[in-house]
Amino acid sequence: MAKSNLVSIPEAAARLGLKPVTIRQWASARKLARVKLGRRVLIPEAEIERLIEANLTPSLPERR
Predict the structure, then answer these.
(1) C-beta of residue 43 within 8 angstroms of C-beta of residue 26
(2) Which of 7, 13, 32, 60 has a CA positioned 20 to 30 A from the CA of residue 50?
C-alpha cells in the first residue's frame, strides 16, 4: 500500500467545502474510506482527491 497523508475530519470537510458532520456520515456509511485509530477517524488525502475526480464535470469548449 502506498504511503498516504491522513487528515482530520474537519480538515477534509474544509478541503471539500462541506460540513464535518457530512464527512462523518459518509465515512460511517463507507462512501468515503477512513482510517480509525481508537476513537479518532482520519481520511486519506488520496480519498479526497478520488472524490473530487469522481465528481468532476469538465467545462465545455469555448464556441466562436
Answers:
(1) no
(2) 60
